[in-house]
Amino acid sequence: MVIFKRKKVLSLIFLFTLYTCIYAATINDTKTLLSNLLSDYNTDVRPIEDQFSAINVTVTAYIKSIQEFDEVQEKFSFVGALAVTWQDANMVWNPYHYGGLYQLSVSYKNVWVPELILSSPSEDVNSLGKSWNKVRYYSSGIAVWVPIDLIESTCAVNVRNYPFDTQECVTSFNSMGYEEAEVLLIPGKTEFDFSVYQENSLWAISGTKVSVQTVGASSQIDLVVSLKRKPSFVIINVILPILFLSLLNILVFILVPESGERISYCITVLLAVAVFMTIVSDMLPRSSEPVPLISYKLMIDMILSSLIVVVAVLNLRVYNKDKNTPVPKWLQALYCFLSCRKCQGTKVFALRKEGKSGKIKAMSINEDTTTNTESKLRHLSEAIERIYTITWKKISFMIDWISFVTFTVASFLSFVCFIAATVNN
Hints:
The chain is of the alpha+beta class. It folds into three domains: 31-230, Neurotransmitter-gated ion-channel ligand-binding domain (Acetylcholine Binding Protein, Chain: A); 233-321 and 403-424, Methane Monooxygenase Hydroxylase, Chain G, domain 1 (Up-down Bundle); 329-390, no CATH class. Helix content is 37%, strand content 24%. The longest helix is centred in the last third of the chain and has 33 residues, at 392-424.
């Protein structure tokens, strides 16, 4: 059995060697073949016997790398190639007549090719192909043309969920100059070929699609690329600083009024939020629909920062109010309520020494003691003034804590709502 297999392999090697010796194409064979094929070749005539039939052109899309995705100018460019295949009736020959030559490369300028025009250009309208491109023909008449180029196309950008957004860019090629009954484009694959693809640092391709449609009277092939942004850079450089600025903004209510730095502090944070609004707006397209959610988030932060400045200014006026100006009853009641004190109906205690032991005993206003009424009232008055007197400084302290809690909750709610809305969509 082993001897039989060895004999079979040796026979195949011998036949292949004999074939290559008999059919060894020379340079003269190639020249002769080119001369015979191109002598009466007309590039303006569709290479099909039945001129009432359409040439089926198969297109397979390859992508090498994403060159650029400009959200501001709405421009998408990538390095890619289209493997275009069709049957050319003028380029058929018998390999045995030309030293076994079964394939041939010809400059695409010298033969008929299906002109593919980029119908969604970002700048100039150009046809696909360069002067150095070659078309490879096989003896059966099959033509393979693989033009490689930097394809720059427009792309409608939707940055509503920035930086957790996904984009869908459509690059279209049209066989202009020919009707669909003359040149019919057929997708070789329904998706891109990623065999030579290199990952991009900012964008990930989440899906691709290749489809054909009729535009007017001609056939058009659409190359759809779905892009998903990698948000790490924006999270670190934009989202987290916005959160930290919101937290820093709230700390103005913990800063003591005696420092004299409250107003300058909150205005500085307000300006920092305004700077971030400018930075983010430069990164986004000038579009009113849809408006990015991050713009709403920054606007809310701007409003909160402005309100913090207003509250800080008014609270300083309350803090420095004249002591002789009485505090309104409703402010006193509010202060008592928030400080968990019932100013009305509460027993007030005075302190006195009891007997020789020197023990201090709490004395209620209703207690019957040997202390005269005048002394008792004086002690009670001092206790009330010390414990329950509500001054403008205490009201200012109350406003600080109310503002601190309110703006903290508002800042966290706006941040959580922004993240939930952008990520879930």
